[in-house]
Prior knowledge:
The complex is a heterodimer.
Chain A: E1 12-21, E2 24-34, E3 39-44, H1 50-57, E4 65-70, E5 73-74, H2 75-81, H3 84-88, E6 90-93, H4 105-116, H5 121-134, H6 151-163, E7 169-173, H7 181-198, E8 201-205, H8 209-215, E9 218-223, E10 226-231, H9 233-237, H10 242-248, H11 251-260
Parallel strand pairs in A: 3-8, 3-9, 6-7, 7-8
Antiparallel strand pairs in A: 1-2, 1-4, 4-5, 9-10
Helix pairs in contact in A: 4-5, 4-6, 5-6, 7-8, 8-11
Chain B: E1 3-4, E2 14-17, E3 22-28, H1 30-42, E4 50-61, H2 63-78, E5 82-86, H3 90-101, H4 116-150, H5 157-168, H6 172-197, H7 203-241, H8 244-250, H9 255-293, H10 298-308, H11 311-338, H12 343-374
Parallel strand pairs in B: 3-4, 4-5
Antiparallel strand pairs in B: 1-2, 2-3
Helix pairs in contact in B: 1-2, 2-3, 4-9, 5-9, 6-7, 6-9, 7-9, 7-11, 7-12, 9-11, 11-12
Amino acid sequence: MSLLTxxxxxxxxxxxxxxxxxxAVVHDDVSLAIQRGEIFAIAGGNGCGKSTLLREIIxxxxxxxxxxxxxxxxxxxxxxxxxxxxxxxCGVMFQQGALFSSLTLAENVAxxxxxxxxxxxxxxxxxxxxxxxxxxxxxDSAGKYPNELSGGMRRRAALARAIVMDPELLFLDExxxxxxxxxxxxxxxxxxxxxxxxxxxxxxxxxxxxxxWRISDRVAVLGNGTVLGIGTMQELWASNxxxxxxxxxxxxxxxxxxxHGSKL
Amino acid sequence: xxxxxxxxxEGDHLRIGEDQTLLCEGAWTLPHVAEVERIVDKVxxxxxxxxxxxGAGITAMDTAGAVLLRRTVIRxxxxxxxxxxQGLRAEVREIFDMVTSNWPTATxxxxxxxxxxxxxxxxxxxxxxxxxxxxxxLGESAVALARSLTAPARIRWRALFRSLELxxxxxxxxxxxxxxxxxxxxxxxxxxxxxxxxxxxxIVDLVGISxxxxxxxxxxxxxxxxxSGSAYAAEIGTMKVTEELDAxxxxxxxxxxxxxxxxxIALVIALPLLTVYADVLGxxxxxxxxxxxxxxxxxxxxxxxxxxxxxxxxxIGIGKxxxxxxxxxxxxxxxxxxxxxGVEDVGRHTTISVVQSIFLVIIFDAICSILxxxxxx
Lengths: 264, 377
């Protein structure tokens, strides 16, 4: 709480990461640092390796070269030592939710607690019920199975599971893709609210220009295997780089800027 | 102020002050929550209807800690006390309020077991529904087959040949090896008994008739049910889950024409051929043991085979194969179409397809045996 001293090391440090799948080069020397307490967005065109980078940061993939440090620990050591402490400090929400289809919503949300916390079932039930309320799901949805939920509800349930351990670091992979504009906007607000309440650091992979304007503190734009630019939306909006300009100044980009840009 | 240390509390998460105030202290966070919970359960609550809970000493709190504090307050209130929480630091208060505002107001209705009569009704209804669906599927497939036979251009030849290769040709090694071994086993078991009576030559009858008539077709059918029937169910089911089947329908293609007929026709062709191949290898296995264990040479074996094993045994064996093939292909495809939900359903129906097709194959085989016995074949 009072740890915020002058120069805190970044929560996530990606340095000189390269990724190759066979002959295909996904990343070529990607470096970025994410600070505690910020909402950091990773943007870029389809197939530019956003999700791949996210998977590398959370340790599902190993980069071909370079290193990634989470809380100062190298992600490769993390895998080798099988130390769950770091995993417990991270929550991940996958693109399609990745809810376990054989478990009910409440059981899904309870999984991390059951596995790691060692607390009584009664307390688990209460925590789960509160988290389900926090993400805005009705209490009677707790007993439903994932295939009985709508897309937006499934996304919220996945978020509830990601935050159930009160992680310091929350990863969201395209949280608003495929949601209707009202629910997507609601989701943005939810992320902001949770960040304020729980003091989260949020890493969000998204195409959603409205989300980028609305919630991100800083944005990294990936393209051509490298980081084209990092900065606030205003900085990127004013960027002279042709590819960044193209990304943000399309018709949709201009509409999003017109709506959100002036408010910031 | 003197404070009474609560027994068993190494950390000082919860104490009771002398003036009966509840003093919450230290870290109420997930790593400590289990410990705090134990302390809470053991605390001897002060008597009195009014209770003050002083949280000024809480250094850190997360949702889990806040839930525990909230729950403790609720339990005390249920005992008829009034609890006043005070002194929380601003950021702790924020989390506590957030938990309070999201506390579920009503517990969802408990799951009640339906009565046994209702369960029975449900079971019977389910069986009837399944029967209807299976019959509808069978009818649809038969109509599609009739349509295709009158217009062979409709048949998906590519899919048919692919299925022939995958489910027929590629199954040669495994079916061959298995029937060869079964031939060896039967000959071994028979050899012991036949030698006692000095009727070594009857090994030919034993191996020949049992393999050709019953065992080779059954072994082939069981291998194919496990190998291809399961694959059909899983493939079609996954296509259903990923909406590929719906896409096929909207493109004006009948899923039966595309998926069921080629596979069924391919198996109907492949299974008799595989059975013939299995006959050869199985008898060869028996022949090896006959010459090794019973001094029946290959020439004697073949000569005896011609007179002892009537053609009808071979024909009955391969005659059953197409029916086995139809059972396996139709059950596999039907179970694939039955898949509704997600990943779990795919696994369940794949298992069902294998169990059901082997079950039906053996039932069919038994009926054949009885009927053929009546007609003295």
